[in-house]
Design a protein that fits this description.
about 50% helix, elongated, 3-stranded antiparallel β-sheet, about 160 residues, 5 helices
């Protein structure tokens, strides 16, 4: 096993991941219910309320489909601005070799906590909250083989207390 990539994460990647996670959770269901309820309330009461209330209803209708995704994108843009770009990742039999400029780090497979595919991204978790994101555009045709190989390495090197069997 040997894969080498340069991590290139864009704001749109963080945005897609965040929206995917939101709409695959209870929060997403609540957003959809709220959005539909606001549209129905607006249609029902539009002609009965004054200009100020119409403006409030209109803005409420825009909250879920427009304002929330825009806010998520602005947050994603801020996230991208603080992560180092140009990180070289080498996935090999002995672990992950990370190079950023002149700095190098080696992460053994027994320290890797998991791998997950979601929203066109493969995330290799180095701890519960942090990991390396590799997009479909970076992985290309290797995506499925890469995912299987990383998953296999994690299982193979899992500490004995975590192994099931």
């Amino acid at each position: 096993m040997r894969y080498q990539y340069q991590s290139k994460v864009r704001a749109a990647d963080f945005w897609a991941l965040s929206m995917y996670r939101t709409y695959h959770s209870l929060v997403g269901v609540c957003n959809i219910v709220f959005g539909i309820a606001m549209i129905l309330l607006t249609v029902r009461f539009w002609n009965r309320v004054g200009d100020v209330m119409q403006a409030v209803l209109f803005l409420a209708c825009l909250l879920i489909p427009v304002i929330q995704p825009l806010g998520v994108y602005l947050k994603a843009k801020a996230q991208v601005s603080v992560i180092p770009q140009g990180t070289e990742l080498l996935f090999a039999e002995d672990g992950i070799h990370v190079t950023l400029g002149s700095e190098q780090q080696h992460i053994r497979w027994d320290k890797v906590r998991g791998v997950r595919k979601e929203a066109g991204i493969v995330i290799v978790y180095t701890d519960v909250n942090h990991g390396y994101m590799l997009t479909n555009r970076v992985l290309g045709e290797d995506k499925e083989a890469f995912y299987r190989d990383v998953e296999s390495q994690i299982k193979k090197h899992a500490p004995a207390s975590n192994k099931k069997g």
